[in-house]
């Protein structure tokens, strides 16, 4: 079956390559005319147009040029961008169609390519290597890479080329990074106070608190939901509750021990113990009946009605608001007396935020335009939003005397909503050194870092995370083949066991099935890549 899958992949790649050669080899297919501009400085004397494809939020304007950030950038550069903008699943479809047909834009922003897709496109010459463009035309990005040289290594493919421009957002470092944990729990402390209960410190105390929420119907009229989550949904998953039982769990089911051993979390004995605990909560009718199938909107609506005793998300402001009613659930002591927090493997780095296609005949112009996105003040706005907008809410005010962008109070607006409506994303870089110099730290981020530092970091017992390793195409091919069956199976069994039980009875059969699905090979690939990365 695996060989058949690979054969299909190879055939697909060959057919795609034929289409690409037909499309990209014809100069009439080039997206924009060749303006024959050299030694470019901005603003240009005469306006020119480049054609880009991008993805943006449904909350944002349909035409990205309606955003003030991009209007200012056009004025500063003299480059008009003709956008093809898509949202949701339609973007990936249109992006792939453009590549397969050869009807390529000059560049693709917010590209969303996986490492496998990036290398495959490079092999097919649909996108071009950009390391020479960086060295010749991109002083802003060069400055970032001089300050933080580790990012050049992360950008560089195994063949030595750089094929995409990254998004970099630093907020803290190491265990103190804001990306160290995403699925945190928020518990209703007003309900605890009304019931005379202390903040739970053990798994048993949490169970008792949830039972009390239910029995006393704290929301009234039978509306109380002791605990809610969205199963297998990143920050909204209940993975935080696995940490008291061994290595814990995270969104990609991968942690690294202090002996540099890569561990698949869902094959550990502690994971089985965690499942048993969660099934006990389910049997006590403490879980939201919709938690195994609800979407974000449903989750949000119930949260705004303050029906939850405990729920999970990265930032409570997006669910129940930035108030004191809900507070962070601290790390819980498990049956063996140990407190532990499993770290996420997240970091503020996306390797493929923008690519230049082989249809582009204005490489210096495009590279210098993209380099403007790495200007520190520009990056800050691209990431969060802007200032001085007379029609929309601003996230910043500009302090001209200090040449600094200062975050404004959001006045109750959810950070994610304002960001999606007004920011542009794309390639950018925000280094830790920018805070206090280029911009202030957002209040919600500063608050989050303080919580991490005081409540969670002391219990992050693992020193390492699985880094952003740039694997070979063969490694990625093998991993994607395995994960296509392995991860859905693991996540399906998780949901089944929490609701139906029987994890102990089925555990050995489960481990056998993991092996059949390629778990051991997956582990070997991940460990080999981790070791290679550590040696570089």
From TrEMBL:
Chain segments annotated as coiled-coil in the UniProt record: none
Any Pfam family the entry gives: SBP_bac_1
InterPro entries referenced in this protein's UniProt entry, alphabetically: Bact_solute-bd_prot1, SBP
Matches recorded under PANTHER family: ABC TRANSPORTER SOLUTE BINDING PROTEIN-SUGAR TRANSPORT, ARABINOSE-BINDING PROTEIN-RELATED
Protein name per its UniProtKB record: Extracellular solute-binding protein
UniProt organism field: Gracilibacillus salitolerans
């Amino acid at each position: 079956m695996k060989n058949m899958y690979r054969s299909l992949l190879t055939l697909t790649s060959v057919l795609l390559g034929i289409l690409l050669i037909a499309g990209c080899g014809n100069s009439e297919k080039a997206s924009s005319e060749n303006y024959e501009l050299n030694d470019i400085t901005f603003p240009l004397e005469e306006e020119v147009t480049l054609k880009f494809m991008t993805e943006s939020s449904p909350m944002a304007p349909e035409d990205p040029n309606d955003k003030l950030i991009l209007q200012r950038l056009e004025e500063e550069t003299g480059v008009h961008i003709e956008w093809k903008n898509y949202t949701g699943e339609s973007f990936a479809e249109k992006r792939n169609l453009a590549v397969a047909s050869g009807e390529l834009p000059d560049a693709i922003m917010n590209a969303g390519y996986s490492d496998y897709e990036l290398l495959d496109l490079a092999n097919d010459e649909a996108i071009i290597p950009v390391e020479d463009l960086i060295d010749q035309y991109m002083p802003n990005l060069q400055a970032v890479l001089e300050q933080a040289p580790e990012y050049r290594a992360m950008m560089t493919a195994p063949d030595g080329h750089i094929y995409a421009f990254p998004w970099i957002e630093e907020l803290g470092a190491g265990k103190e990074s804001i990306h160290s944990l995403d699925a945190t729990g928020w518990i209703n402390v007003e309900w605890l106070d009304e019931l005379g209960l202390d903040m739970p410190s053990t798994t048993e105390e949490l169970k008792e608190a949830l039972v009390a929420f239910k029995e006393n119907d704290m929301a009234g009229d039978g509306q109380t939901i002791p605990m809610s989550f969205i199963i297998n949904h990143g920050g909204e998953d209940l993975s935080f509750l696995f940490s008291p039982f061994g290595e814990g769990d995270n969104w990609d089911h991968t942690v690294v021990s202090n002996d540099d051993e890569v561990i698949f979390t869902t094959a550990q004995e502690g994971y089985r113990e965690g499942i048993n605990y969660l099934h006990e909560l389910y049997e006590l009718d403490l879980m939201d009946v919709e938690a195994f199938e609800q979407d974000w909107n449903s989750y949000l609506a119930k949260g705004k009605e303050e029906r939850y005793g405990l729920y999970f998300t990265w930032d409570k402001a997006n669910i129940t608001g930035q108030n004191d009613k809900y507070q962070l659930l601290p790390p819980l002591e498990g049956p063996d007396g140990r407190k532990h927090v499993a770290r996420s493997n997240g970091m503020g780095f996306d390797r493929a935020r923008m690519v230049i296609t082989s249809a582009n005949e204005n490489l210096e112009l495009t590279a210098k335009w993209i380099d403007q996105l790495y200007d520190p003040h520009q990056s800050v706005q691209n990431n969060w939003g802007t200032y001085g907008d007379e029609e929309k809410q601003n996230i910043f005010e500009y302090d001209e005397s200090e040449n600094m962008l200062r975050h404004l109070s959001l006045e109750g607006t959810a950070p994610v909503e304002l960001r999606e409506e007004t920011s542009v994303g794309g390639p950018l870089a925000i280094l830790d050194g920018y805070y206090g110099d280029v911009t202030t730290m957002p209040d919600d981020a500063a608050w989050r870092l303080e919580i991490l530092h005081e409540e969670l970091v002391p219990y992050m017992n693992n020193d390492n995370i699985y880094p952003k390793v740039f694997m070979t195409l063969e490694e990625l091919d093998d991993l994607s083949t395995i994960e296509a069956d392995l991860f859905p199976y693991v996540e399906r069994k998780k949901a089944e066991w929490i609701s139906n039980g029987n994890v102990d009875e089925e555990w050995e059969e489960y481990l056998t099935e993991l092996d059949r699905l390629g778990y051991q090979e997956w582990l070997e690939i991940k460990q080999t890549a981790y070791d290679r990365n550590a040696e570089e």
